[in-house]
Amino acid sequence: MDMSSGKITMDDIANMAGVTKSTVSRYFNGGSVRESTRERIQEIIREYNYEPNTFARLKAKESNVIGVVLPTLNSKVSSRVVTSIGRYLREQGYETLIKDSDHSVDLELKNIQRLITLKVDGIILSAITITEAHRKLIQGSPVPVVVLAQDYDGGISIVHDDYGAGKAMGVRVAKARPARVGYMGVSALDVAVGINRKQGVMDGLKEWGIKDVVTAAGDYSYASGIRMAEEMMDQGPVDAIICATDRLAFGAYHVLGERGLRIPEDVSVAGFGGYDESTLLKPDLTTLRFDSYGLGYLGAETILKMIHREPVPKKQIVDYTMIEGHSVKEQSDF
């Protein structure tokens, strides 16, 4: 231990406290540390005026930092995922370095490259999509990468069952025997929601004999939900509207209310998400909740196993729960 510079490292603190470096890291990241150990570490920190520097540790290849790339920070799903990741990693003595891609594929790729350059221990990528550029970057990465929310056959992924969830909702709405159904979706660039979830809905409707379906696509915003609902209703009446997200369902509620149409008496409405805010809708929205906390937990658990070269499943699927509100007609209403 060289004290001539007046600076000490985490290794020095561990040696002086008589513990492992991972224990010291857990202390700094709010993890579980025995009170007596915590007091010894605190005493050393005060004596030597030690200040941890995340980026210095990254540069020195002793980071205990996991990079997390999210499509946006402005969503309930992302909030739940990153909260779950942070909680788990803190308990294991790691901290997170979060990158927001702002729904930009180009920025997402740059964020991945930046984290690789910073030499984080591993990357949890909640992906917007998986392009050939993603594949090359992930496969060439010197640090392990686990992909969340998008199916990635070239590596390790953890996904929601978007197809199964979509089909379940399609069947639920179809049981009310609507003559004409509208589907408000998102761009096919997001394969999980834009393609898989939509296909599940279509197959569920088809299975129950619903053939007259009008579709629209937009982004994830409330404004997009309003626009799609207006365009859909302008094409003629529908008996039900299935929305790819609860936020889009908010837009559908607004438009139907503006046009004097009752939910579900005139038009049934269903969504996906199960957000807390969705309980504010009246009548209560029939929706489908994905286990976003579980997705984040599995992502954090899996990346640490990959770092320690433990075996992990190539693909893990997180389940969903149907939440029965009062926005979709029952079959007995016909």
UniProtKB/TrEMBL annotation:
<feature type="domain" description="HTH cro/C1-type">
    <location>
        <begin position="7"/>
        <end position="55"/>
    </location>
</feature>
<dbReference type="InterPro" id="IPR001761">
    <property type="entry name" value="Peripla_BP/Lac1_sug-bd_dom"/>
</dbReference>
<dbReference type="GO" id="GO:0000976">
    <property type="term" value="F:transcription cis-regulatory region binding"/>
</dbReference>
<protein>
    <submittedName>
        <fullName>Uncharacterized protein</fullName>
    </submittedName>
</protein>
<dbReference type="InterPro" id="IPR010982">
    <property type="entry name" value="Lambda_DNA-bd_dom_sf"/>
</dbReference>
<keyword id="KW-0804">Transcription</keyword>
<dbReference type="InterPro" id="IPR028082">
    <property type="entry name" value="Peripla_BP_I"/>
</dbReference>
<dbReference type="GO" id="GO:0003700">
    <property type="term" value="F:DNA-binding transcription factor activity"/>
</dbReference>
<dbReference type="InterPro" id="IPR000843">
    <property type="entry name" value="HTH_LacI"/>
</dbReference>
<feature type="domain" description="HTH lacI-type">
    <location>
        <begin position="8"/>
        <end position="61"/>
    </location>
</feature>
<keyword id="KW-0238">DNA-binding</keyword>
<dbReference type="Pfam" id="PF00356">
    <property type="entry name" value="LacI"/>
</dbReference>
<dbReference type="InterPro" id="IPR001387">
    <property type="entry name" value="Cro/C1-type_HTH"/>
</dbReference>
<keyword id="KW-0805">Transcription regulation</keyword>
<dbReference type="Pfam" id="PF00532">
    <property type="entry name" value="Peripla_BP_1"/>
</dbReference>
